[in-house]
Amino acid sequence: MKYGEALHAQALPRWAPYNVDYNELKNLIKAHTTKDQGSAIAIPGQINPALSQFEDIFYSELVAQHDRVDLFVKDKAGEIGRRLQHLHTVVLKLLSRLPYSNGRPMSNKRRERFAKYDNQIERCGEDVKQLQRFVDAQRIAFHKILKKYKKWTVSSFLVERFNQQVLAERKSFTRRDLTPLLISYRALLNDIREHTPDTSGPPTPRLSRRPSHQVQVERVPQSYWNEYDNGSEARDEPYTIYVDPNAESTFPGAKTVSHILSGVKVPMGKVKLWLGSSNASPPEQRSLLDGENRVSTPSRNAYFPAQIETDIDDDASSSDFPSGYATHYSKFPSIREQKFEQYKDKLIFQTTIASFVGSILLLLIASLLIMTGRHKLRVEVDVGAIMGVVASLFFATAGFGMMLYQNERVGWVQKFLVGATFTVVCILNGFLLVLIGENTGP
User: Fold this and answer.
1) N or C, fewer C-beta in 10 Å, the chain?
2) What are the residue boundaries of the SPX domain, all occurrences included (predicted)?
């Protein structure tokens, strides 16, 4: 087989366009050195202008072919170097997490990652070896072309010129050393395989007690990994998506839904506790026997478990409770409920004050509308004033109701102030309604 055909046949399909155009260069030499086509042949001792012109053209073509191959080799070597550097970073990060496993068996997901990075490192090594073979093939192609040119033109000037000015340069791809890439590839492969866990299963049990040999399970190399998240890394090569049948099946967004539900449970629990505590009877109205039965015979909805008898009697001390909270010896003390009751009383007191303030403000607004209303807009002014009076009475009633709700825990001073304010607001609102009736009269 001729070298041009062998060069094309042995090259990788995706790298074939970057090969030296060996057949075209060979045909170009034949076209300018054949006698039948009237081309000049070199005569020893004489300068051939046609041959000198052809040498310049052929030299330029050789330089262009060399630069194209050199650019490809440089880009490919840089790409492999970046891939190895990236793999070095992720492998170091993966290996740094191994000491924190605390002796636990490695998860299937981490095993898959080991297999994935091992395969990617192997591909980098194959690319380095293929690139070295590609460089050797192109070097041989240039050597053969120059040899044919020297044989058919009987001139060594172009051969010496191309060797000295192009191939002998340190930047030429023929001088590029791929050994550092091979060293990085082997070191990285050794690192990951030294820490890769053994995936082979235990040997199968003996078939019988008589024979002394055991049937060993042959280790099957792992030929798949999960690349669903980074499927683009496979490029044009086929890859397999592995689905673990033992994995817990969840729908997309399950974590988000569970987070929202857990956040809703907190305010719902507070509302439930509020409603439950409002319906419960005061501690001083509960029977002691009921508290004892609740402790000794817990029901299904009891909050505290049954008492456990011990040899040591622990006496409850009032010094163990924060100041401002009462101690109850007829049942288990609940500081949380007492805090909640104090918070509820404070909220009701603030709501009562806000209701009366709003009622007084609405009363003032209605009064200003009546005093400053124009005669032409009397109907609109009266409607606005009536709405203000109704809203003022509503807020005053709400404030008075808040005071009645906490009637058992309110002092006589607060009762007097709330009652007096409610009475004054009602009288003033009634007086405004009388003024509105007189204004709308005939």
Assistant:
1) C
2) 1-163
pLDDT higher than threshold 60 for residue 294: no
**Cα dist from 101 to 192, 288, 313, whole Å:** 17, 55, 45
Give pTM, 2 decimals.
0.43
DSSP string of 384-409? HHHHHHHHHHHHHHHHHHHHHHTGGG
Q: What is the DSSP letter of 311?
A: S
8 Å CB contact between 141 and 22: yes
Look at residue 40 and give its three-state secondary structure: coil
Residues 6+ apart with CB under 8 A from 368: none
Spatial neighbors of 410 by CB under 8 A, at least 6 apart, are 403
Q: State which amino acid sits at residue 261.
A: L
Q: Hey, is 305 helix, strand or coil?
A: coil
Question: Which residues have CB under 8 Å from 349's CB, separation 6+?
Answer: 402, 406
* Alpha-carbon span 223 to 238, nearest angstrom: 12
Interatomic CA distance for residues 386 and 122, integer angstroms: 88
User: How many whole angstroms separate alpha carbon 28 and alpha carbon 146?
Assistant: 12
Q: How confident is the model over 97-145, as pLDDT tens digits?
A: 775 555 566 678 888 888 898 999 999 999 999 999 999 999 999 999 9
Q: Tell me if 145 sits within 8 A of 26, measured CB to CB.
A: yes
> SS3 for 15?
coil
Q: Do residues 133 and 11 lie in contact, with contact meaning Cβ atoms separated by under 8 Å?
A: no
Token pair, residue 237, equals: 């090569």
Of 193, 188, 199, 196, residue with least CA distance to 121? 188
Q: From the CB of residue 56, how many other CB atoms can be counted at a distance below 10 Å?
A: 10
Sign of the dihedral defined by the CA atoms of residues 25, 29, 32, 35, in that order: negative
Contact 19, 119 (CB under 8 A): no
Q: Are 211 and 218 in contact (CB under 8 A)?
A: no
Residue type present at position 113:
R
- What whole-number distance in Å separates Cα of residue 84 and Cα of residue 78? 10
